[in-house]
Amino acid sequence: MMPPRHCLHLRHAHVYHAGVLCEIIDVQGDRLLARDGTGRRYTLSRFLLEGIPLTTAWLHRLGLQEGERLRNWRSGIAWVLRRTPQGYCLVPEGDAGAVRVQGALPYVHDLQRWHRGLTGRYLTLINDPGPETPPPPTP
């Protein structure tokens, strides 16, 4: 059975589940298979995931920084990762006024999805300092 299109972008995304940092390794309908840093596996509902806010520290963990260029592997157009008062976003290179901002990237998995779409490669942790305190649950 093919997973719903809206879930396909979650493969290889990093999320919190019950306060544990996990990577989605497979999508089966509305169920997601994930593993934590120790290799323990979880079956999750896509409705119960906690997004990880995209911060400068997380950019570093992913091996990126503000101003990073991501070249679209199909068109060759470069997009630049910028920080705005609303958070991080992608803008076409040379668009100094950021007139064509391509949406906000509030969560790590949003950046991972865009990175995969633009470059054709998965964005994974490369600078992992180990366990961290997850953000408090949202009310």
Instruction: Tell the overall outline.
Output: globular
Oligomer: single chain
Strand order of the largest sheet: 1-2-3-4
- Note the total helix count: 3
What is the strand content?
25-35%
Give the N-to-C terminal Cα separation: 34 Å
Order of helices and strands: HEEEEHEEEH
Which spans have pLDDT < 50 for at least 5 consecutive residues? 1-8
The gyration radius over C-alpha positions equals 15 Å
What's the main sheet like? 4 strands, antiparallel
What is the average per-residue confidence, as pLDDT, rounded to a whole number? Answer: 78
Percent helix, as a range, is 10-25%
Q: How many domains is the backbone divided into?
A: 2
In total, the number of strands is 7
- Protein structure class: alpha+beta
Commentary on this structure:
By secondary structure, the protein is an alpha+beta fold. The chain has 2 domains: 5-48; 56-119, no CATH class. Helices cover 16% and strands 29% of the residues. The protein is built from 3 helices and 7 strands, in the order αββββαβββα. The strands form 2 sheets. Strands 1-2-3-4 form a 4-stranded antiparallel β-sheet. Strands 5-6-7 form a 3-stranded antiparallel β-sheet. A hairpin with a 6-residue loop joins β5 and β6 (78-84). It is globular.
